Amino acid sequence: xxxxxxxxxxxxxxxxxxxxxxxxxxxxxxxxxxxxxxxxxxxxxxxxxxxxxxxxxxxxxxxxxxxxxxxxxxxxxxxxxxxxxxxxxxxxxxxxxxxxxxxxxxxxxxxxxxxxxxxxxxxxxxxxxxxxxxxxxxxxxxxxxxxxxxxxxxxxxxxxxxxxxxxxxxxxxxxxxxxxxxxxxxxxxxxxxxxxxxxxxxxxxxxxxxxxxxxxxxxxxxxxxxxxxxxxxxxxxxxxxxxxxxxxxxxxxxxxxxxxxxxxxxxxxxxxxxxxxxxxxxxxxxxxxxxxxxxxxxxxxxxxxxxxxxxxxxxxxxxxxxxxxxxxxxxxxxxxxxxxxxxxxxxxxxxxxxxxxxxxxxxxxxxxxxxxxxxxxxxxxxxxxxxxxxxxxxxxxxxxxxxxxxxxxxxxxxxxxxxxxxxxxxxxxxxxxxxxxxxxxxxxxxxxxxxxxxxxxxxxxxxxxxxxxxxxxxxxxxxxxxxxxxxxxxxxxxxxxxxxxxxxxxxxxxxxxxxxxxxxxxxxxxxxxxxxxxxxxxxxxxxxxxxxxxxxxxxxxxxxxxxxxxxxxxxxxxxxxxxxxxxxxxxxxxxxxxxxxxxxxxxxxxxxxxxxxxxxxxxxxxxxxxxxxxxxxxxxxxxxxxxxxxxxxxxxxxxxxxxxx
Length: 661
Prior knowledge:
Layout: E1 2-10, E2 20-24, E3 36-40, E4 47-58, E5 68-71, H1 78-90, H2 95-102, H3 108-120, E6 135-136, E7 147-151, E8 156-157, E9 160-161, E10 164-165, H4 166-169, E11 174-175, H5 176-190, E12 194-198, H6 202-214, E13 221-224, H7 230-239, E14 247-250, E15 262-268, H8 285-296, E16 299-304, H9 309-316, E17 321-322, E18 332-334, H10 343-354, E19 358-362, E20 372-374, E21 390-392, E22 398-400, E23 420-422, H11 427-437, E24 442-446, E25 454-455, E26 460-464, E27 471-472, E28 476-481, H12 484-488, H13 495-507, E29 510-518, H14 524-530, H15 534-548, E30 555-561, H16 563-570, H17 573-577, E31 585-594, E32 607-614, H18 619-636, E33 639-640, E34 647-648, E35 652-654
Parallel strand pairs: 7-16, 7-17, 12-14, 12-15, 13-14, 15-16, 18-29, 19-26, 19-28, 24-26, 25-27, 28-29
Antiparallel strand pairs: 1-2, 1-4, 3-4, 3-5, 6-9, 8-11, 9-10, 20-23, 21-22, 30-32, 30-35, 31-32, 33-34
Helix pairs in contact: 1-2, 1-8, 3-7, 5-6, 9-15
């Protein structure tokens, strides 16, 4: 059949529709690739919305016609569709799941304004008028070209912009990692290309935006902050489709920015858990960035104060080039376990305050105490809703650290006692206790509930939870790391990796001449940290993972659902995907996860888990096979979510499940 036909990706949660469908284009409609259209499907009269992927002149599959053009804005370029399609296939997900993450909801007002502006500037193209905008500093990579990784210098550094000292002429002092990312982005802007900078949270975004603003590049920034309104997000998305170079700054969603002339993708602190997508298809932004770099051949930069085991693996494989510059390690002393605030840390605080400086004290958890215990039998108090650990918040109210539910009517499950006692001090109690020890000193508490992005220099004590530390111009006179053993004792193989990253980020806020104390961190790990041997720490962690055959040495998929259904899915799975002698995979389990049937299982049923440990080379074949088997299983088994009461998938599949370790 000849004519004009549109191949349409239908937006639908049904995995059965996860492919392209051909529709004939009526002569009165202007249909171009990338636009939104409405099309019929099946015997129903309702129209389905979708995106035109391509327009062809031959089709033997078209049985219906495009009913309506929703918008003339081409918001899904073919290169972006190919990236999302490849990502969905890698994670055994659907394109619709990725479109929900990647393309913001349409705002008619914003879109019409963008189309009007695009029409007025049509034909003019873009010509770069920027020449030298380089940001230079000691240890800066000569050129940001290729697939790179670098440990950022953990201190505030002097930088030169267009031949002038930024500190003297603009009163701007930059952290080492901020200077690294700004320098990399400006190099792309000077070349007429765009840069995508992905960071964990709003604090890091604000630091990058503030630096670019003071350097005069605020107009070049495309803000992909997840907290924006829907219309603002859509406006930023549309802006990326224009040929003018932009600097995209955002959290994990920024990896989907559809920039037209991508020159660089950079990620800061890839070990941060907030960069992992908690919903299907459960992709980590680092993996999405690596895949996009392969498809686009753009430059890549993965950086942090510490190094993740995933990055260390890629360095050892030769996939990433380490361009870390030589720099002096920060002044860090580690002490033996004992008192929570020992003599060394007390003296460091006193010396910094006596000099009129600020002090940062990092504690493990927020609230009055890290945990609450039954006053009668000393059992750890558990949440009545999810059985998570309870703590006392700033108001003394018992709350769950997992689901944040209040437990006003607490009853101990062991002795049925109703009274609680506190455990180790949290941020609230630590701030109060330090305030008593240093009377007359201003005390500031910074947590994810009490957001403090930056503070003015001066004599003050800042008590912060990990990741919530505010920045002070010029840096802190002292940084004290408390509760280190609690961070290392978390129930995950990633405990050491995550703790080192959190400590390193806090230490990087030191002023020139400032010093840090890691309380209770004496030992092999503490020695390596004091020497700033981040590569050695990551290498040791990776070696341990290799011995256990755990990620990232191997990939680990998980299947969650009813036992009988999972048994059918895994039966004969490995022979269907392992076709070469050098390929290895194994099925682990089953393991009973929950008797109440919470989540994806049928109401009242038990929830079981199977794990599939496999080589990277098997990823494509295994994802394809598991997707087909899970699709068939979910179609045959009806399931209802216990929490919402709505229909849900009986089996949940994750191709990379970080929670299992």
